[in-house]
Specification:
seven-stranded mixed β-sheet; mainly beta; four-stranded antiparallel β-sheet
Length: about 120
């Protein structure tokens, strides 16, 4: 069983930046982030593969968010720039979502609030 511990998040004005971190207690093949805003469906934001480092992003964050990882630390980062009010959501770290939608492991979530 892998545990995911998140840090980062908070409140920022539109146009600002935040960085999320997520440390895994063990090896994972894929790590990434999902988010869910009130009254909206959960959305996959970004993911990164341990082997090779390939990444993928939701269209809504491409060019603004960057996912990276430190394999030695089993830690993934999400650098969020040019934040918009519509980025406001609870962000969840996730791991081993082999179908892209259903992770085997979840973090506890961290709130990101972007004010206009």
């Amino acid at each position: 069983q892998v545990q995911l511990v998140e840090s980062g998040g908070g409140s920022v004005q539109a146009g600002g930046s935040l960085r999320l971190s997520c440390a895994a207690s063990g090896y994972t093949y894929i790590m990434g982030w999902f988010r869910q805003a009130p009254r909206k469906e959960r959305e996959g934001v970004a993911g990164i593969y341990t082997s090779g480092g390939s990444t993928y992003y939701a269209d809504s964050v491409k060019g603004r968010f960057t996912i990276s990882r430190d394999n030695a630390k089993n830690t993934v980062y999400l650098q969020m720039n040019s934040l918009k009010p519509e980025d406001t959501a609870m962000y969840y770290c996730a791991a081993d979502m082999f179908d892209g939608l259903n992770p085997l492991y979840w973090g506890q979530g961290t709130q990101v609030t972007v004010s206009s």
